[in-house]
Amino acid sequence: MSALENALHKEGSKETMENSQNSYILSRGFAANARVPRSSAHPHITAPISFDYMLSECSLWLIELARMLPNARLDGLDISFDQCPPHEWLPQNVSLVKHDIFSEPPSELMEKYDVIHVQLFITILRDGDPVPMLRNLMKMLSMQEPGGWLSWGEWDFTTWEIIRTPSAPKENDELERIREFTSTLGGTKSGPGFISISWIARLHETFKQQGLGSVVVDRHKFSKDIVTLLLDTWMMASQEISMNVLDQLGGEKGDVMRGFIEEVGQNRRNTSFNLDRVITIGRKAWSDGH
Question: pTM here?
Answer without folding.
Answer: 0.79
